[in-house]
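Reopening this one. Same input as before:
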Amino acid sequence: MAELPPGLVTVADLYREMVGIREALSEVATGIKIADERHQVNQAVHTDYETRIRALERGWWKISGAAAVISLIVSFAVAYFTIRGR
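Same output, byte for byte:
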């Protein structure tokens, strides 16, 4: 076979380059798929944490409200019994 002048590209060269590009794209696609799966798992964990935090906040406000109501009732009871002299 005759030597090709410098700078010429054969079909075989193009084919090898295309195979390399295909392999690189396959690796990139796999990396994107793994990152997407990781993101979905992180999103699920974040949603779970957010739900738990909101439940704790609701409990905190309920306890705080109950404490305020009990404090108010006790204050009125103390004032009432102080005024009546018992």
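So the earlier flakiness isn't reproducible anymore. For the record, Helices lie at 11-84.
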